Every structure is written in C-alpha cells, then in structure tokens.
Amino acid sequence: MTVTQNRTEIHNLTPIERQARYWNDESQAFDAIYSHRKSALSNWLDRVFRRDMYERFRFAVERSQPIAGRTVLDLGCGSGRYVVALAEAGASRVLGIDIAPRMLELARELAAEHGVADRCEFQLTDVLGLDAGAGPGFDVVLAIGLFDYIRDPAPALSKIRAVTAGRAIISFPRLLTWRALPRKLRLALRGCEVHFYSRAAILRLLNETGFSLQEIRRVGKLDCVVAVPGVAASGRQDPALVTAQSQ
Ligand SMILES: C[S@@+](CC[C@H](N)C(=O)[O-])C[C@H]1O[C@@H](n2cnc3c(N)ncnc32)[C@H](O)[C@@H]1O
Questions:
Q1: Which domains does the chain have, with CATH numbers?
Q2: In which band, very low, low, confident or very high, does the pLDDT at 7 lie, cut at 50, 70 and 90?
Q3: How far does the centroid of ligand 1 lie from the alpha carbon of residue 153, in Å?
Q4: Which of 138, 169, 180, 214 could form a disulfide with 73 if both were Cys (CB 3.0 to 4.6 A apart)?
Q5: CA of 145 relative to ligand 1 center, distance in Å
Q6: Which atom of ligand 1 is nearest to the CA of 144?
Q7: Model confidence over 86-136: pLDDT tens digits?
C-alpha cells in the first residue's frame, strides 16, 4: 500500500476508528515498555524518556489501596498491566475496557499468565459506550493515559463520574511541556489525535462533571488526579479545587 493510499484510508475513518487502528498497530511496542522485551538501549531510552509511565503506574496502584475485595474499572486498559496488577493485589473483580482489539488480546493473555483471569473481564468499547447502569458503581475507576486521546473530555468524565462509587484516578498530559508539540505532530502523522490540558482546564472539568478533588500531583509531564463523587457545579466551585488551582 502506498503512503497516499494509507493516508486516504485513515481519512475515511472516524476519530475513534483512527485511534483504535493506531493502538492496534502499537499494541506490542506499547506493552514492551512494561515487559522490557527489547534491546538494552531501548530499555534505557524508556527509563529516561518514558519515566512518567512507570511513575504514573506506581501512583495509580498506590492510590488504589486498599484494594483487597474491591471492584475496579480500568478505562483504556491497553495491554492490561493495571488490571492484572490490581487483580493480583486482591481486587475481587476488574473490568478493563478498550477500543483496540489487539490490546485486549494482550490483556487477556497477561491475565491468564498471571493466574487472575477468573477475576478479570475485558470489553471492547469506547468510554462513552460503557453501560453506566450495569452495576452499583466501582470502588476504583482508572483512566490512565486515556484523556490524551479524548477529543471531548467532558462527556467522558461525566460517564466516569456515573460509574464511580469510590474514587477515580485519572492522568492528564500537561499542556506546557517541551514534549507536547512534537508528540502532537508525530502522532498526527499516524492519524492519532493527542490532547493536552492546563491545570485550570482539569479543575474546571472535574468541577463541571460532579467530581470533588482529593489530590492533584505533577508526575513528570502529567497531572495525576484522585477525585471522588461530589456535586456537579451550579456556579459554585468546590473549595478543594480553588486551593489546588492556586498551588
Ligand atoms: C496509552 S494507552 C494506555 C493503556 C493503559 N491505561 C496503560 O497506561 O498502560 C491508551 C489506551 O487507550 C485506548 N483508548 C483510546 N481512546 C479510547 C476510548 N475512547 N475509549 C476506550 N479506550 C480508548 C487505546 O486503545 C489504548 O489502548
């Protein structure tokens, strides 16, 4: 297939289909950042340039505690690294959803390899397609490395709010970093949109969608958030958000 044919084909896809295609193609390479099944040089480059991925993993797993006997929903679960880590840590049920079938294949294999497949479920769906009425809500909801790829974040965050009974742990890529523009251009060439967020935008989104902020922490080029269900904004701002905004 020529480059022009490839570009035409990408342009005929919906934004979600483009994302799914990109992540299908990237699934093995993405998971190798965790498995380290690559050359020593590539592993070294990951340790230097993708440090955020390891740090956000630690942040999310730590903030999910205590997890024994709890339920987890992982949105944009990718190759299942968080799903499996939390199932191994004692979660009673972990549901991972993603739009890329190959990511879900890797996630299922990983759950089986680690002997936790009985407590892990996977669904091929977009965040917005999630059935909010399917249960009483999850104790922990993760959206790590997801909002980078969401064109319209407010409806996705409202959906997350609707399925969160305990807390939501969410990462947002920061707007003003050296990496934002090159990353946006590099991925745009492959048909994958990337979005970045100012802290003010994150706080406004949380406020508008009925989340109350517990913690917002800078993790390299990300802002990582722990939020709990609160009251949707009606012109009044959550005092915790006002404090975080001024930090
Ligand atoms: C950077 S990966 C992160 C995977 C995993 N959370 C992690 O940090 O290891 C982003 C994942 O989000 C998925 N994704 C992108 N847009 C999505 C959407 N609208 N709904 C569900 N999943 C989505 C992609 O297919 C991809 O697997």
A1: 3-243 (3.40.50.150)
A2: low
A3: 14
A4: 138
A5: 6
A6: 6
A7: 999 999 999 999 999 999 999 999 999 999 999 999 999 999 998 766 666
